Amino acid sequence: MSKARQLADLGNVYDDGALSNRNLIINGAMQVAQRGTSDVTGLTQASDGYKTVDRWRFNANGGSNTGQITMSFETDAPNDFKYSTKYLVTTADTDIGTDGDLRLETHLEAQNLRHLNFGSSNAKQLTLSFWVKSNKIGNYSAGLYMDSASNSNNQISQGYTINASGTWEYKTLTFVGNTGTTMNTTDNDHGLRVWFFQAAGSDYKGESSNTWGGTSHRAIGQDVNLYDTVNNYFQITGVQLEVGDTATPFEHRSYGDELARCQRYFLMCKPETSAGITHAGFANLNARSTTARYSVVHFPVSMRVRPSVAYSGSLTAYSGSGSYAVSAISMNGSTEHAAEMEITAASGATVGHGGWVRILADAYVEFDSEL
Question: How far, CA to CA in Å, does 326 sit from each of 36, 299, 346, 362?
Fold first, then answer.
């Protein structure tokens, strides 16, 4: 790229109002994976949700869609990146039906998008850029879904082509702003969803490219059905969404910055087993009865909403000179900043005694406030 072009692109970025914090995507370099880096297998249309890499959600639909996917965290990436997310087909489906689809998506909070001015004549363009690789060449689709009171003018998409098998390719797509529909007015709720399709039925691709509309605008240009052969795969990283008509170089943020952004939506507490640690202290507690203990956990960042809590594996409550197996954790009260929990463990604690909860190597406690 010439110096003149670089300066022109920089000028465009300045005019669009962002020299830093350009990227609206959280964890676009796929470097944070609090849930773990192990493959998640057997994903079907009943498996929608966050599985591996933070902020990236598996989604599949369709009454006749019987395909299965393994979603994985990969250490294969183009220059300037280290990690990527991968879909691998493990059960084929050559006909997903008119209403079937397969996509990878990320959800953006509405209050971070007010400057887009959607629903007005000042609605801004958005440029999506990313690195992608697949063994299956052909035409794919990416698009935006805007959460709003209207479902008739809230979706837009464009096609792009993967030209070479097994090769990282850089793609850019610029989307027109939505002048006709206003975004969700609840600040900490859904604003935009960014979708990357690997398969889509005819219900989702009957209209013109890069125009806002309803369901038939969802996956324009998608011809590939990744499901059609076992071992087909799709990988992606370096995802950036920014205001304007220019794709600028990827905005690399520090791991700590990216982790904090992810922890607004999901927080995982577990031992660092890769360092040989077999347990970790989780929270202090106070025994209110022989079986019930109460504890308060302060979150490292304010979460999006009051989270739910869940745990798996072996936890132990220590109180006085005894140790007691934990059998349940439930919220007794919480805010976006801290959680008060009731911890039920085997009988034997002395009322009024303090103690702590230990997470063993096979266990975790998680707090979830995902979009």
Answer: 23, 21, 7, 14
In total, the chain counts a number of residues equal to 371
Q: What is the pLDDT of residues 55-70, one digit of tens each?
A: 999 999 998 999 999 9
Query: Quick count: other Cβ atoms within 10 Å of Cβ 20?
Result: 8
Sheet holding 155-162, edge to edge: 49-50, 57-61, 101-109, 190-200, 138-146, 155-162
In tens, the pLDDT along 290-344 reads 999 999 999 999 999 999 999 999 999 998 889 999 999 999 989 999 999 999 9
What secondary structure does DSSP assign to 119-164, as a single string?
TSTTPPPEEEEEEEEESS-EEEEEEEEE-SS-SSS-EEEEEEEE-S
Question: Between residues 59 and 3, which one has the greater pLDDT?
Answer: 59
227, 67 Cβ separation under 8 angstroms: yes
330-338 contacts: CB < 8 A, separation 24 or more? Answer: 332/294, 334/306, 334/307, 335/306, 336/299, 336/302, 336/303, 336/304, 336/305, 336/306, 336/369, 337/298, 337/299, 337/302, 337/303, 338/296, 338/297, 338/298, 338/299
Location of structure tokens 């971070």: 112
Pick among 2.60.120.260, 3.40.50.300, 1.10.10.60, 3.55.40.20: CATH of 3-263:
2.60.120.260
User: What's the whole-model pTM score?
Assistant: 0.94
Question: Do 207 and 153 meet the contact criterion of CB atoms below 8 Å apart?
Answer: no
* 3-class secondary structure, 222: coil
Token readout for 370 is 């995902």
Topology of the domain comprising 266-368: Immunoglobulin-like (2.60.40)
Lookup: tokens for 40: 């998640």
The answer to whether 22 and 251 have CB atoms below 8 angstroms apart is yes
* Confidence check: pLDDT of 275 > 70: no
Give the rounded percent of residues in the chain with a pLDDT score beyond 90: 87
The answer to whether 129 and 251 are in contact (CB under 8 A) is no
Domain range summary for the chain, segments of one domain joined by +: 3-263, 266-368
pLDDT higher than threshold 90 for residue 73: yes
Q: Report yes or no: 295 and 337 within 8 Å, Cβ to Cβ.
A: no
- The residue type of 351 is V
Computed from CA positions of residues 221, 227, 230, 233, in that sequence, does the dihedral angle turn out positive or negative?
positive
